[in-house]
Amino acid sequence: MRRLTGKLRTTVPAAAALLLCLAPACNNDCYNLAQNICQCESTPQLVSACQNDVSQQNGVQNPTSADLARCHAMLQTCDCRSLQSGSLQAKVTCGLARPNPTDKALNP
């Protein structure tokens, strides 16, 4: 279990930063998703640090309606149990990874 939380600890802050690029100043589904992912941290101190990072980075850019729709869908399926599995599919489900990172449509 410790190994899994170590992996999660390194991916969650990066994911929170990625997700926050989509979140404006008001709390929307992208912001809420990032906050929920923070809840998956292994200690209260790490949860708090992650949430502080999310709050500080909130408002970097305004999400499009498509971004908000993706975040809304991820809110329905993303949970800590699946993230702790460390699987690529769990990370994709939570917006922490792309299903096909070499897809030219995702990387113009």
Describe this entry's structure for a reader.
By secondary structure, the protein is mainly alpha-helical. It has one domain. The protein is built from six helices and no strands. The chain has helices spanning 2-20, 29-38, 44-57, 65-77, 80-85, 88-93. The radius of gyration is 13 Å and the shape is globular. The termini are far apart.
Identify the overall geometry: globular
Biggest sheet: strands, sense, closure? none
Number of separate domains: 1
Assembly type of the shown chains? single chain
- H-E string: HHHHHH
Parts with pLDDT < 50 across at least 5 consecutive residues = 1-7, 16-25
Tell me the structural class.
Answer: mainly alpha
Strand proportion: under 5%
Roughly what percent helix?
55-70%
The total of helices stands at 6
Radius of gyration: 13 Å
Give the tally of β-strands. Answer: 0
Question: Separation of termini?
Answer: 38 Å
Mean pLDDT: 77
